[in-house]
Amino acid sequence: MTTDIYKLTIHMVSSLDGMIAKKDNSVSWFDTSDSYEQGVSGEDTEAFLKKIDCYVMGAHTYEHALELSKSYGWAYGDIPTVVVTHRALPLERPNIELYSGDLYTLVNERLKPRYRNVWMAGGAMLANDFIHLQLADEIRVSVLPIILGEGVSFFDHIGKEQALHLKDVIAYKNGMVELCYEIIKA
Description:
The chain is α/β, with parallel strands linked by helices and 186 residues long. The protein has helices spanning 45-49, 59-72, 103-111, 124-132; strands at residues 7-15, 19-21, 54-58, 81-84, 96-99, 117-120, 138-144, 152-153, 164-171, 177-183. The longest helix is centred in the middle third of the chain and has 14 residues, at 59-72.
């Protein structure tokens, strides 16, 4: 099945200072007690997730998601998930596949023919590779009301300037702000 419209979105949750993880990979900082009265409640999560056809993530994100799934369940449901890795990782669900090749091949031969709405759900190095190779179409950053001070930076060593176009800004009642940028391709 070839699709007419294809979009790869990089999505990250970040602190205000651009960190996507603490050094110990803990995510307790995701829970915010902040309150912003003018914010929106957000759309129905289940309906929103049905719009995503496929997830792509790096090996470290996958391993972290597996660990979190022991307490919270698998966050990505039955949606096809491609894990980009050169390691042999456990496949704990039938909708997960490992991929170890070239990212151009992944996008052009595996993702574009099958899916319309692909979300890259984690991994700063993988996100930077998708941006650098101009394989991503938009970036959505959910900025939480916290400064971590140290940790894993979202845009670490991207190696080039990248122009963006602001498509949307949403402020939520919990103090999170979502920024959506289209990636301007040269």
